[in-house]
Amino acid sequence: MKWGILLALVVSSAFAKDFSSWRKYSQAELISENTAFAPGATGTVGLKINLADKWHTYWLNPGDSGTAIHLAFKTSRGAKVERVLFPIPEREQSGPLISFSYTHRVLIPIELKIDQSAAVGRPITIDADIEWLVCEAVCIPAFDSLHLEVPVANLEGVGQGPEFELFQKTRALIPQPVPDFPRFSFNGDEGTLKLPEARVADKFVDFFPFHGSGVNNVKAQLVGDTLQFEKSNAGNVMADHVGVLVVRAKDSGKLQSYQYGTSEWTFEAKKSAAAESLLWMLLSAFIGGLILNLMPCVFPILSIKLLSLMKLAKAHPREVREQNLAYVVGVLLSFLAIAEALSILRSAGHLVGWGFQLQSPFFLCFLSWLFFCAVVESSRCI
């Protein structure tokens, strides 16, 4: 019966809609700017995300909808992630909603500090867990675990990697931090930001506010040397969170961007504590199992098992122990099989998780039949 449930899980996933697989619309990989890292220097790798036509993902501040990319890194000894650099996004409007996003392809440079003691000839490994949202008419959560190894070499042994040109193009779109940046001035529902004269000489393109800046996502207007905004209704104004100004240089016609303040977005540095994490997960699962047995939906299942044990009241104790052992082993093996099936489906890019099967009419019909049989079986024991 439990293997029937597993079969139903797999079958129901086969009837999922096409957008259940994010891999059809977005792929991510880690790439290196150079062929090697030099001890004591800064090395740069990049998270490259390719997006299908008309699909997009989000910037640091996603705007009125969506969510920013989440990154968690773990590096081998000898390297440490210092900064993650985001190129300027695009402004998109769908009805009343405004979003700041990337389309087609985006490269997010990641700077690492390489220790002076890093051994030449040994590789530096970078592991990244990434979660991002892929959107078109619908939004699909995407997730992947990426791995990259870059050798350590003397400075003369560091050359340009295959994607070096892409890194150079992306660097031109990274905002330049502005020291002693100006602050917003608010008067009621309106806000202003006075720009330096050098910025006013260039052609204003856009301004992307950071989350927490207190500025509405509606496009700002340039009046003289002052940007005019609408005040946001979300939370208090944070003086350190301003945003990114994009202009087109008057002399060269190229886009230039300037970052005022800092963003709230941060990445996660993962520690190498697999054994401790596993112990915590097992303990959490055990506590969660105890809590689950207190749920009303579980009591009927426990009562069915209890009634079946009552039939063994006059049986030999050894037979009772064998029955209970078989029950426990069956439960454990069944859930391990289900977890393995879900893991295989997720690694193939399908958007499945615990409970996804309840969206399938085929599985619901099977579940109704299963519960009906269970009730009939329990009635025979009474």
How does this structure look, described?
- The protein has 382 residues and is of the alpha+beta class.
- The protein folds into three domains: 19-173, Thiol:disulfide interchange protein DsbD, N-terminal domain (Immunoglobulin-like), CATH 2.60.40.1250; 185-261; 274-381, no CATH class.
- It has seven helices and 19 strands.
- It has a four-stranded antiparallel sheet, covered by helices on one side.
- β6 (90-94) and β7 form a beta hairpin.
- It is elongated, with a radius of gyration of 28 Å.
Q: Which whole number gives the mean pLDDT?
A: 82
Oligomer: single chain
* Helicity, as a percent range: 25-40%
Number of helices: 7
Over the alpha carbons, how many angstroms does the gyration radius reach?
28 Å
Number of domains: 3
Note the beta-strand portion.
25-35%
Give the overall shape, derived from the CA principal axes: elongated
CATH architecture of the largest domain: Sandwich
CATH class of the largest domain: Mainly Beta
What is the count of β-strands? 19
The helix-and-strand class reads: alpha+beta
The biggest beta sheet reads:
4 strands, antiparallel
Report strand order across the widest sheet: 1-2-8-5
What is the fold's blueprint, element by element?
Layout: H1 2-14, E1 26-32, E2 42-51, E3 56-63, E4 70-75, E5 79-84, E6 90-94, E7 97-103, E8 105-114, E9 123-135, E10 139-151, H2 164-171, E11 176-177, E12 185-187, E13 190-194, H3 197-200, E14 203-209, E15 221-223, E16 226-230, E17 241-248, E18 255-261, E19 268-269, H4 274-292, H5 299-310, H6 317-347, H7 361-381
Parallel strand pairs: 4-19, 11-18
Antiparallel strand pairs: 1-2, 2-8, 3-7, 4-9, 5-8, 6-7, 9-10, 12-13, 13-16, 14-17, 15-16, 17-18
